[in-house]
Amino acid sequence: MCALFFLLGLLIPWWWLQDNNFRLTAREKLATAFPEMNAMIMRRFSLPGDVDRAQQYVLQSDGVQQTTYLAQRYCHEAVREISKLRPSPERDALIQLSEIVLTRDK
Hints:
- By secondary structure, this protein is mainly alpha-helical.
- The chain has one domain (2-10, 21-103).
- The chain has six helices and no strands.
């Protein structure tokens, strides 16, 4: 059931998440790898070029790959758990939803 909630949670925009520990960990990792990142975060990316530099830092880190790996792992777990439910159109839609989440571009 936890995997199902994770799958549905993937549909919620990241800025709705209330998990401060996750956000702080990601921020700390980026700030450690790229010290300038912390200053950009503190000034809320208000200077010209801040957003572009931050995007480059994120792409240079392994965060995107780690996120993709975790999404795949949790979606596969969700499908495994959902498959235990009685066959129904709703169950099939949830399984299809996991495929959509993994293959969407935005």
